[in-house]
Amino acid sequence: MSLTSREDPTVPxxxxxxxxxxxxxxxxxxxxxxxxxxxxxxxxCVLCTPSGERFLDPAAVSVATGYxxxxxxxxxxxxxxxxxxxxxxxxxxxxxxxxxxxLGISDTLALGILNEYLGAGLxxxxxxxxxPELQKHPAFDAHAQTLFExxxxxxxxxxxxxxxPWGQLRAALAELLGE
Length: 179
Prior knowledge:
- InterPro entries: Flavin_trans-like, Flavoprotein.
- The protein has 179 residues and is α/β, with parallel strands linked by helices.
- It contains eight helices and five strands; from the N terminus they run βαβααβααβααβα.
């Protein structure tokens, strides 16, 4: 079996892209995050921004998912260790990533993947985790709107709920895939 083939082609692959914000620390500990996604039938592969990597234990995530956490691009000619995705979940997505993503900037592996698969039309769900002051920045709303119009499904936490909406994201993925 090559590194790019799937162990079970009937199991959908989800790229969970984590940016540098506290919810990234919950990938394994929150029952609705990686464990819940796996119980929904996903093969979960985690990629993260360099800032996102600081919030998680890459070795523990690799053990839980069966795949290495990708932060850096692979070398030329190197096989990809991750199977191709069927959908993407950006959880959490930060102010910085929303703005760069909308502009097509690919200065990290995570942004390159997001740009590529947005262009490919794959289902993408995301939840912004940014201070209210940053979300009021004049560039932010326009960039989030650009991504929304391109097909990104943004999930907002329930009114006044300070917790990250892992359960809502799981439900949104099922809807995006027509399940």
